[in-house]
Design a protein that fits this description.
Two copies of one chain form a homodimer.
Chain A: E1 4-9, H1 14-20, H2 23-29, E2 33-38, H3 41-48, H4 59-73, H5 89-99, H6 104-107, H7 110-122, H8 131-140, H9 145-152, H10 155-171, E3 178-181, E4 184-187, H11 192-201
Parallel strand pairs in A: 1-2
Antiparallel strand pairs in A: 1-3, 3-4
Helix pairs in contact in A: 5-7, 5-10, 8-9
């Protein structure tokens, strides 16, 4: 079985978006695939007492500048969303639904869906807090709109996401993105090169 | 005149220590020298509302693990100080005094002094919050103890540090380390490779 890298993220995290565009290539270089693990930072911030990055004095201004600068370095599009941060529960739920689906064809679409949702927010400025927008984005990558709408109303999907978040917190995940490499957590999109070296060297 | 990279840091910042051990090599690769700019994060945190990293739930545990892991990657010694965080005003003042001295021989010792103070705290677990310890560390790198003790009591040195901190805040410095590359601020020891690439490419 292919080893995975678990990628924890919130759709409302610009650094989560930036890292999502690069993590698969790093995983692939080391014969791995990415397990997409959306979480809701609001639930985590209630534990850590953190506030959203862009709402912090000074740090917020730096972050807004750095999102674009870090995107440019890697040739990624980045447009800061007009409404930010936003509620991402619908986007997270549909992503968990795809990842956990019985149909392997839908499971295989998970990464494509994750990228489409991130790009909808950070490239096309679409309000993915709106379930109808999530449903539209998902349908454009080939998922059935009726199935998406059912998933968004499905109690089992809600429960799965809630359990995923509890498990992430229990593991020590407190920010987005956090990458779990065989039990070693790395926090931040600026740690991707370090993860690459960690995998190359087999740790240190 | 040689161009500098301004390196803003608090001695009570482990990531400041880790970056201090690597920044000169990066600067030198691009024909630059480092301007050492100690600040006091306590003053900055009153503006940003931040709390010391190791005191934050979850993030603190991650940080304690990551300090050592990041040190190991670069072959640096790291031992987390028994008392932490500590007051670093004496260490900051003596560093500013050396950097601003009329005697170029003392100015030239600034980097050596900075490294000695950082290593006293993070390698030898010495309580550099104590002015007597700061004085001892400075004397071991060849600075005169009487001159250090006078500097620590000198109102002009206090004022210089206070002005430096105000100027740093005005520039947008909110954390340690922050490196100013020709007006572009980069925050975090995990941005050193990005700074290296920025200098190599002349920005992007």
């Amino acid at each position: 079985m292919t080893q995975t890298l678990s990628f924890y993220y919130d759709y409302s995290s610009p650094y989560g978006y930036l890292a999502s565009e690069r993590i698969e290539a790093i995983a692939a270089r080391h014969g791995r695939t990415v397990r997409w693990c959306p979480i809701l930072l609001g639930a985590v911030f209630r534990i850590t007492g953190s506030v959203p990055l862009t709402e912090q004095p000074m740090k917020g201004d730096y972050a807004l500048h750095d999102f674009k600068r870090s995107a440019r370095e890697h040739g990624l599009d980045y447009s800061h969303p007009e409404t930010f941060p936003i509620a991402t529960v619908a986007a997270a739920r549909v992503s968990v639904w795809a990842r956990e689906h019985d149909d392997p064809a839908i499971v295989d679409q998970t990464g494509t869906l994750v990228h489409a949702l991130f790009r909808a927010l950070y490239v096309d400025n679409r309000a993915i807090n709106d379930a109808a927008v999530v449903s539209d984005v998902a349908s454009r990558v080939g998922l059935e709109r009726a199935a998406i709408d059912a998933a968004l109303a499905d109690g089992a999907v809600k429960d799965q996401l809630r359990q995923d978040i509890d498990a992430a917190v229990a593991l020590g995940v407190f920010g987005s993105p956090t990458i779990d490499v065989d039990g070693e957590l790395f926090w931040g999109s600026d740690r991707l090169d370090q993860i690459d070296r960690w995998l190359e060297r087999g740790g240190w």
